[in-house]
Amino acid sequence: MVDFLPTLWFILIAVLWTGYLFLEGFDLGVAMHMLLLARDEKDRRVMLNTIGPVWDGNEVWLLTAGGATFAAFPFWYASLFSALYIPLILVLLGLILRAVAIEYRGKGDSQRWVELWTWCLGLGSFVAAFGVGAALALTSTGLPLDRNGDMIGGPFAWFNGYAVLGGLAVVGFALVHAADFLALKTEGPVRERAAAFAWPWGVVCLLPIALWAIWVTVRAGHPIAWVTLAIGVAAVVWWAIEARARREGLAFLGLGVFIVAGVATIFEAMYPVVLPASNNHAFDLTVTNASAAPYTLEVMSWVALIGVPLVLAYQAWTYWVFRKRLSGDAIPESTPFRAAVAAAAGGSDAASQPFAK
Amino acid sequence: MHLTALDPVLIARWQFGITTVYHFWMVPLTIGLGPLVAYFQIRWHRSGDARFYRATKFWGKLYLINFVMGVATGIVQEFQFGLAWAQYSRFVGNIFGAPLAMEALLAFFLESTFLGLWIFGWGRLPKGIHTATLCIAVAGSIISAYFIIVANSWMQHPVGVTMEHGQPVMTDVWAILSNNTAVWSFLHTILGSLMVGGMFLLGISWYQLWQRRKDGIDGVDADGRVIPGENAAIPGRDRADHRLWLGSLRVGSVVAIVAFAFVFITGDQQGKLMFVQQPMKMAAAEAACDTTTDFSVLSFGAWNAESCHSVRDVIVVPGVLSFLANGNFDTPVKGVNQLIPIYQERYGTHASNGNEINYVPLMPVTYWGFRVMITLGGLAAFAALVALWLTRKGTVPRSKWVMRLALLGILAPFAANSAGWVFTEMGRQPFVVAPNPTGDDKLFLLTQVANSPSVGAGELVFSIASLGGLYLILMIVEAWLITKYVRGGAASAIPELGKKPDDTDAPGGGTGQKSPDDVLAFAY
């Protein structure tokens, strides 16, 4: 099996993207729901704190997917990233704003400060989710490429209906997934509204991702893709039953199975092409012609064999530590502080005399 | 000017320079401050002393304000090789992505997951485990520094590879991981970061002690020894507060001084390697136009000098350059003019795009980058020594100007770090992957042919403007927040100190008491 290692790495990259969409999927969705579902600041803080301890670790799945693509498929990495220059710059701007917003939102002095960062958080997450979805959709449906693998046709040649479909797919999935997550992780009004969003609105939100998975499967016609697609369909039916009955844990699990099956379907339908050249299939990037040399893949396989289980173990532990549901009562009052400087502190007599012995 | 008239490579280089130097303002503070916060928490865990609890909380708060900016700007770093440097990514694909992926998988996950546990783990995790989460997160930062420097060092000095069909192929991952260039620059970078952490503690603690004196809280006796006081009306200004700042100041100073000693040693080793591995970089760093043994202390030339025509030596010290390169005073070091024909013979005269290759880096940048780095590093260490002397009697002088100098001193190691990286990256030009003098002469890549062919000047102008604009705003925000929390003193990180001025003097006041089970000890 000449292609064993590249195929293994193709699967691993699919796994990394699954991990990213599963974990940061609800992070991004929670941030968007801070604009959609929250009624007041208490709601927003309850929502934000469900992802507080874990969002940064979840985002590393994106970095790892990117890094692993560079390491295992440098030609895929180079072609895809340079072709999607503008959308990925927008993703970066969104991710930067979002990360900074989470940390800085509660550290200002005014209501306007909080509102400004809430918008940065929600919109940054939306842009990031949309852009990542567009990028994944385009790598599964193709871009116009030259012999060298560089995109032709100008800076916007990537823009087409698939990009929009993929963007909507990830945004929609993130919204449902986050609603399930919030229903599972909170107590009180947020839990109520999140569950009411998941069913029935979730069905609409999941349409784009379903359409995308079905489209690539029909086009590729691989039997395995049909099997995983069927699993995905079964999972989404299961999810709908549980979400409707408000069994939150099972609904979350059902949608989890759905995203695993969905990503598996999309990647399986692509294989062995990693980035089709929509203008000329002779220029397709495949697991064979886009991959790194066997020795590099072998080294990276050992690293992944040690690293991935370790990461899964300690991230699972984190979720165990923070397993409790959050309610408004659990959120401490935000604490504005006075400067420890006499003038700013209003000054007692002793303090108003500089350098009094 | 129409956008198409701009050179995409030049804009891409500026973008990489701006985003990387910016990212590396956050990173050394993360790497330098992290171990110090961990040290304070371990001391608190062992002794239960309130001073260490406060130090952990206060410095930890500033650490986190800065950390998130490093995270946010770090994503750009990993993406921009593929975004703007696709030809580079293809050329180095068999080697360079591997340490990046290792960094993400083995370091970033540790760092971010365990830092999340630390932030939200107050009062929820057992004390020992909580302390361990921070130590693991800090270890993650240091491991990540190692992997990224392995990647960078391979660009400075490619090892563990052979050329196959015009592309480098990895043959020995251990050679890449143990590259002598990587080992020395890793140590140099960590130590340089510790200087940043040390001077950060020194400057801010100095300000706090000065403020206490200004507000009439601390006085001095006839011998100049401190008489610590308290002022219940000001949040956190009790007697323990004085010990917090004095202790932090001393820890910071000692760390900065010791780190500098080792920065000096590791830097000397790097220099000696560089004379062998990248002779042109060192010749340009010394403005050594012709073969010599003399070290230039001061030389002038045209600002954009890429050749030696206009360089004029003002002060030179005989023998020292030879010592830097070889450890003796009389072996001459090859100058720029002697190196150019050697480079042309080995690596050609024209790039694959037809342009003539200029092998001389921008000399004013390398020359001054090198000197600014050394001068500011040395000044910072000297300032730390002076600070220890001035505070020997337990507090700082009243002078406002000395206080301002102490705060300004925080910037010195930051600037030294930036200057060092600008020097080493600009000094590698015109190469993005510099050739290994003892390796395959075909194994190198010129920066001018490493960019993304499909990305034009228009897209690059869009990205450099949007990223640059956002970075500028965020820098102002971060500086404002750090200033705000510094002015808040310990109470900014420990709200209990501000709320109940009456009990804060009690021993161990406010230390790590468990919150009621259902209320989070910390929430965003």
Automatic annotation (TrEMBL), chain A:
Localization: Cell membrane
Main location group: membrane
Sorted UniProt keywords: Cell membrane, Electron transport, Heme, Iron, Membrane, Metal-binding, Transmembrane, Transmembrane helix, Transport
Keyword Heme recorded: yes
InterPro entries named in the record: Cyt-d_oxidase_su2
Source superkingdom: Bacteria
Family the UniProt entry places it in: Belongs to the cytochrome ubiquinol oxidase subunit 2 family.
UniProt protein name: Cytochrome d ubiquinol oxidase subunit II
Native organism taxonomy: Bacteria, Bacillati, Actinomycetota, Actinomycetes, Micrococcales
Gene name per UniProt: cydB
UniProtKB/TrEMBL annotation, chain B:
Pfam families listed in its UniProt record: Cyt_bd_oxida_I
Transmembrane segments: 20-42, 63-88, 100-120, 132-155, 182-204, 244-265, 368-390, 402-423, 460-482
Keywords, ordered alphabetically: Cell membrane, Electron transport, Heme, Iron, Membrane, Metal-binding, Transmembrane, Transmembrane helix, Transport
Listed InterPro entries: Cyt-d_ubiquinol_oxidase_su_1 (IPR002585)
Region (Disordered): 496-517
Domain of life: Bacteria
Topology relative to the membrane: Multi-pass membrane protein
PANTHER family documented for this protein: CYTOCHROME BD UBIQUINOL OXIDASE SUBUNIT 1, CYTOCHROME D UBIQUINOL OXIDASE
Family: Belongs to the cytochrome ubiquinol oxidase subunit 1 family.
Protein name per the record: Cytochrome ubiquinol oxidase subunit I
Organism the protein comes from: Gryllotalpicola kribbensis
